[in-house]
UniProtKB/TrEMBL annotation:
This is DUF1349 domain-containing protein. It holds the Pfam family DUF1349. InterPro entries: ConA-like_dom_sf (IPR013320), DUF1349 (IPR009784). SUPFAM superfamilies: Concanavalin A-like lectins/glucanases (SSF49899). Coiled coil: none annotated. It comes from the Bacteria.
Length: 198
C-alpha cells in the first residue's frame, strides 16, 4: 500500500486510489505520472468500465474551493490532468484538461452515477489554465480560468455520498501522461456567486 501524502492545502494526509508510475510533491505543487492505458470511466452505452488511473484524494469538510493550475503533457487522445471528486466506484466526478480527438486541449467534465456522462466544454490555449472545484452545501461546481482571472462556470451538480477530492492523471489511449498541479489552493469559504465564480 502506498504511503499517505501530505499537501499544505489539505488538513489531513491524502491517499492513492491507484498508484502512479511516479510522483513528487513540493510545497503547493504536485506532479503525477500515469502509465499507459489508464482511465476512470464507465461507458453509458456499453459494458466497458475503467478504473486504473492514478488518483490522490483526501477529505475536505464543509464548503470549500480547491483550485490548481494544471499543466499536462497532452500527447495522445484523452490524455488529461484532472481534479476529482470521489465518493466510491459508482459515484464520482472528473474535471479535466484533456486532449480532444481533434488534437486540442479541451475542458471536459464527467459525472458518474452508476454510469458516466461525458461533456466537452471549451477548447483552451496557453499555460495558465486553472481548474477549480467548489462545494456549496450539498452541491458542487466546476469552474475554469484561462488566464483572464474570470472563473467560467462549466458545471453545477449534486453527487451522492460524501466525496473525497483530489487529483488524477490519465492516458486512456496513450503511453502515459505526466500532469503538474501547480499553486494548489484551498479556501474554506463558501462561494459567493456561482455564475461569476466569486
Amino acid at each position: 500500500m502506498s504511503e499517505p501524502v501530505t499537501l499544505p492545502a489539505f488538513p489531513e494526509p491524502l491517499r492513492w486510489l491507484n498508484p502512479p508510475v511516479g510522483w513528487s510533491a513540493d510545497g503547493d505543487d504536485l506532479s503525477v505520472e500515469a502509465g499507459p492505458n489508464t482511465d476512470l470511466f464507465t461507458d453509458p452505452g456499453g459494458p466497458d468500465r475503467f478504473a486504473n488511473a492514478p488518483a490522490l484524494v483526501g477529505r475536505l469538510d464543509g464548503d470549500f474551493t480547491l483550485s490548481a493550475r494544471v499543466r499536462a503533457d497532452l500527447l495522445s487522445t484523452y490524455d488529461a490532468g484532472v481534479l476529482l471528486l470521489y465518493a466510491g466506484e459508482h459515484a464520482w466526478a472528473k474535471f479535466c484538461l484533456e486532449m480532444s480527438p481533434q488534437g486540442r486541449p479541451t475542458i471536459v467534465s464527467v459525472v458518474t452515477r452508476g454510469v458516466s456522462d461525458d461533456c466537452n466544454s471549451l477548447t483552451v490555449e496557453g499555460d495558465d489554465i486553472r481548474l477549480r472545484i467548489s462545494r456549496i452545501g450539498s452541491a458542487f461546481a466546476f469552474h475554469v480560468s484561462t488566464g483572464t482571472g474570470f472563473w467560467h462556470l462549466v458545471r453545477y451538480f449534486a453527487l451522492d455520498g460524501d466525496p473525497e477530492v483530489g487529483f488524477l492523471a490519465q492516458s486512456p489511449t496513450g503511453q502515459g501522461c505526466t500532469v503538474r498541479f501547480e499553486d494548489i489552493r484551498r479556501s474554506p469559504e463558501r462561494l459567493a456567486d456561482l455564475r461569476n465564480g466569486e
